């Protein structure tokens, strides 16, 4: 979707403001927000792609005004309600009122080191051979789905070169919507700055994205 | 009771601090609810926070870089299979499942961004800083990287190529900065002290050896 999250090339946000000796958290609630988000992810009820899409669906004015952990909490609220773990009334009251969905697992403290160390690999075997090879010219498609995609707007309908075939990975555009993992080959595609931004681009600039095969056509 | 409407901004104006205390109440209520329902274990949250406050952070990545500078075989492995090479040092897991190492050279400077969210190599750098997740960086890194770097106090030579990596998939990028001059006699541990988090994102270069004294 062409949501507020798709920020590449937008203007007007002002300078980057690095904070010297920045702490990992700026408030106690941020720590809890991180832990709640990871704990709820461990339910096994939704995928990382669905959770990203939940955040992208926050209306633009709210998304851009929110801190990042606030975006996470808004996303988690939606996912808990959608998957039946909490009702809206419960989320509003902050207290349990009725039984809800049962998760595949509840993350306990003693499971945390193992779960974090294992992560969630997204590479998958596929039976097909990659359609493109390194060095080949490709053009990204021009599409504007209302659903989840990982092809940023600034890199649509652009001509670039496949730099590497990275393996086959879960296809987020389907997986975000419960349509299965449907793995596809993934390619690192590199574009000249001028192809993305026109004649005024930095002449030394190249930008790469990681693009699933169905995002690409032969150049 | 706090306002809990996801889809509309709060009608009342409030300053930044009040916003934060709203969130304090909201997140507390959410943790209470989920604990009452048996869905989360507050001790697990404590363990997650402790992991990212004390165990998983940029020192992991600095170790990887220092080893790459010191050991050509390791650097080769890192180029070919960064996930395995990094795992050999014990750094694995969440948001580091599929690692790629990109090497700065005399010709090219690498810079990593996630324009679509906040993808970041947690296993080697820990949790991302606020600026990495914020719109200013995510919007401009791909169109005006030199302008962004200037805001970090880094000015590259005009003829240096700038390569920006937008982390649009599950590959996570670690920049291997150039080894500074005057570091020939230094061991891995001392070298790691020259490698900042920002140098491994690409918004800085490695420190000079005199910066340690």
Automatic annotation (TrEMBL), chain A:
The reply on keyword Disulfide bond is no
Which positions fall inside the Nitrile hydratase beta subunit-like N-terminal domain?
1-101
Annotated catalysed reactions = an aliphatic primary amide = an aliphatic nitrile + H2O
Q: Name one GO molecular function term.
A: transition metal ion binding
**Keyword vocabulary terms for this entry:** Lyase
Q: What Pfam family is a match, any one? A: NHase_beta_C
Q: Which residues form the Nitrile hydratase beta subunit domain?
A: 121-218
* The enzyme's E.C. designation: 4.2.1.84
Function text: NHase catalyzes the hydration of various nitrile compounds to the corresponding amides.
Q: Which NCBIfam families match?
A: nitrile_beta (TIGR03888)
Similarity field: Belongs to the nitrile hydratase subunit beta family.
UniProt-recorded name of the protein: Nitrile hydratase subunit beta
The record lists the organism as Rhizobium laguerreae
From TrEMBL, chain B:
State the similarity comment.
Belongs to the nitrile hydratase subunit alpha family.
**Which species does this protein come from?**
Rhizobium laguerreae
- Keywords attached to this entry: Iron, Lyase, Metal-binding
Say which enzyme class the record assigns. Answer: lyase
Q: Which NCBIfam families match?
A: nitrile_alph (TIGR01323)
Q: Which reaction does it catalyse?
A: an aliphatic primary amide = an aliphatic nitrile + H2O
Question: Where is Fe(3+) annotated to bind?
Answer: 114, 117-119
Disordered: annotated segments: 1-20
Record InterPro entries? CN_Hdrase_a/SCN_Hdrase_g_sf, CN_Hdrtase_a/SCN_Hdrlase_g, CN_Hdrtase_asu/SCN_Hdrlase_gsu, Nitrile_hydratase_asu
Domain Nitrile hydratase alpha/Thiocyanate hydrolase gamma intervals: 22-204
One of the entry's Gene Ontology molecular-function terms is: nitrile hydratase activity
Q: What is this protein identified as?
A: nitrile hydratase
Its Enzyme Commission number? 4.2.1.84
Which segments cross the bilayer? Answer: none
Where is the organism placed in the taxonomic lineage, from the top?
Bacteria, Pseudomonadati, Pseudomonadota, Alphaproteobacteria, Hyphomicrobiales
According to the lineage, what is the superkingdom? Bacteria
Respond yes or no to whether keyword Iron is given for this record: yes
């Amino acid at each position: 979707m062409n949501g507020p999250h798709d920020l590449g090339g937008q203007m007007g946000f002002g300078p980057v403001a690095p904070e010297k000796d920045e702490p990992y958290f700026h408030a106690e609630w941020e720590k809890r927000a991180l832990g709640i988000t990871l704990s709820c992810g461990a339910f096994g009820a939704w995928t990382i792609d669905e959770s990203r899409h939940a955040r992208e669906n926050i209306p633009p004015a709210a998304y851009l005004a929110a801190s990042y952990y606030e975006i996470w909490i808004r996303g988690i609220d939606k996912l808990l309600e959608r998957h039946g773990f909490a009702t809206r009334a419960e989320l509003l009251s902050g207290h349990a009122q009725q039984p809800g969905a049962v998760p595949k697992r509840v993350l306990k403290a003693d499971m945390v080191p193992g779960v974090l160390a294992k992560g969630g690999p997204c590479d998958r075997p596929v039976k097909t051979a990659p359609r493109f090879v390194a060095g080949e010219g490709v053009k990204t498609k021009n599409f504007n789905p209302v659903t989840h995609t990982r092809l940023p707007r600034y890199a649509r309908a652009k001509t670039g070169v496949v730099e590497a075939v990275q393996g086959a990975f879960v296809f987020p555009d389907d997986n975000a919507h419960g349509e299965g993992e449907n793995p596809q080959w993934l390619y690192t595609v590199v574009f000249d700055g001028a192809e993305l931004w026109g004649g005024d681009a930095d002449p030394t600039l190249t930008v790469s994205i990681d693009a699933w095969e169905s995002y690409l056509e032969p150049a | 009771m706090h306002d809990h409407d996801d889809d509309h901004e709060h009608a009342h104006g409030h300053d930044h601090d009040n916003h934060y205390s709203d969130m304090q109440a909201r997140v507390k209520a959410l943790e209470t609810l989920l604990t009452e329902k048996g869905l989360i274990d507050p001790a697990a949250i404590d363990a997650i926070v402790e992991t990212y406050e004390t165990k998983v952070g940029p020192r992991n990545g600095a170790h990887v870089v220092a080893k790459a500078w010191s050991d050509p075989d390791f650097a080769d492995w890192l180029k070919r299979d960064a996930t395995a090479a990094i795992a050999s040092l014990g750094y694995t897991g969440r948001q580091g499942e599929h690692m790629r190492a990109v090497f700065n050279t005399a010709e090219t400077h690498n810079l990593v961004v996630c324009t679509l969210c906040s993808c970041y190599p947690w296993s080697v750098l820990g949790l991302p800083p606020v600026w990495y997740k914020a719109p200013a960086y995510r919007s401009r890194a791909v169109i005006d990287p030199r302008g962004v770097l200037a805001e970090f106090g880094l000015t590259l030579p005009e003829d240096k190529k700038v390569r920006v990596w937008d982390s649009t998939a599950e590959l996570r990028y670690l920049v291997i900065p150039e080894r500074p001059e005057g570091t020939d006699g230094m061991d891995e541990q001392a070298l790691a002290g020259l490698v900042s988090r920002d140098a491994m994102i690409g918004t800085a270069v490695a420190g000079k050896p005199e910066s340690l004294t």
